[in-house]
What we know:
By secondary structure, the protein is α/β, with parallel strands linked by helices.
Amino acid sequence: MADPHVVILGAGPAGVGAAYKLRRRGLARVTVIEQQSTVGGNAGSFEAGGQRLDYGSHRLHPACDPEILRDIRSLLGNDLLDRPRHGRIRLRGKWIHFPLKPLDLLLRLDRRFAAGTALDITTRKTRRHRSDSGEDSFASVLMASLGRTICEEFYFPYARKIWGREPEELSGIQARRRVSAGSFGKLMRKVLSQIPGLNQRGAGRFFYPRNGYGEISEAYADAARNLGAEFLLEAKVTALQLGGGIGGRGWTVSVDQKGRLLSLDPDYVWSTIPITLLTRLVCPAPEARVLEAASSMEYRAMLLIYLELDEDRFTEYDAHYFPGADIRITRLSEPKNYSLNGRPGRTTLCAELPCSPDDHWWKMSDYELGTIVAEDLARAGLPLRRNPVAVHAKRLRHAYPVYTNGYEKPFGILASWVEGLPNLLSYGRQGLFAHDNTHHALFMAYSAADCLTDGVFDHAKWEDYRRNFATHVVED
Ligand SMILES: Cc1cc2nc3c(=O)[nH]c(=O)nc-3n(C[C@H](O)[C@H](O)[C@H](O)COP(=O)(O)OP(=O)(O)OC[C@H]3O[C@@H](n4cnc5c(N)ncnc54)[C@H](O)[C@@H]3O)c2cc1C
């Protein structure tokens, strides 16, 4: 049987990872369709002010699956840097090192915060007992495991900023999948892992490509291209019509590439674009309940505001985290401090401002957004020493899936609808509505390729993988 033709929608890590794996194992002919002019999706990079920059602070976590890490190492060679983590969290007006260090906590932690946390530790058994009410929200899960002080001073205000919702409105799944230090035991292990001799391999370190985080996706895409995959960039998928291909179970994919209309007839479509968008592209259109489910699901957007400064270095840190409600941005990174690329005498800061496309922030000019960042930094005790030489903003429409209480129901409706469509797979961060890291998106891509044998997709094996994906915990 001739190799099947797989069309992959989206060239983020999930798309390029699958293209590479399918071609390396000679499993299929591959065409990747990406609306942007570059690959990498939210994990991509671009150049500005003589420096390669990412869409917010991105790092490759040592928790990466060993096979994937091996591939990334062999694709990037010496470009994959092993870097120490060196960040700070602003907690009740004080700076705490991140990752947390025992001595630093002892010396710098605000006394009221320390006393409150100590009390929460001693009362955690009774608190667990009392919280046995059956409620399963982000708020109830973290209150039961971490107590009032850490929740109210750190996780709850951070959650309001990141997801734009009250902690009680968010699902308990968000706490379990998003908060890797979700109990005192895990928190202590993280703190202790910073002590030399007690540290696990990789603790307090991360991998970062010399030419920006996007180099990972670019290397996968280049390798896939060299193995015969075709990439259509600046090409937007506009419709997916069922029919044709293997026994009428294939697809016709309509694409608009810079005004040129293309039509492809693959056997399989592997989609990494938002699952909610997929419902609007598939013909025949899904029934009303599927469309209603899609419209009830939310992705949080993100403004990334870059300030180019006429100085060699703004601070020594890779990132500053701002959980507090008094500061609007959630994180400020200084890529030059960990990427080792950049011009002497210049540095660029990247501020992350989560929001909704309906917020007034979304429509602000780059200059106005720069003013927000400058004000926030001054309030946090990190005033800009000079006006930036340039300010520019990027807008991510699908930055984070928002797990509101009961989101599993509409997501379940969408997942069953996709499962009922022949030869269509929806995966990746956007396709499975998964708050995942890059290495998780790559793991999904490798798993999908592993399910294709002799042109036939093994759905039972994919279901096993899906259960495994549900165990992924996001690393910060
Ligand atoms: C601010 C921020 C910080 C992060 N930090 C980290 C980190 O430190 N470490 C880490 O491991 N992960 C991090 N992540 C997560 C990481 O970015 C994602 O896990 C990764 O991008 C997911 O890859 P993906 O391919 O599944 O999805 P995406 O990267 O979202 O790719 C989807 C692609 O589909 C394309 N697309 C959409 N619609 C269409 C269409 N109609 N036609 C054609 N193409 C289309 C998009 O343009 C995009 O390229 C971070 C994410 C954010 C938002």
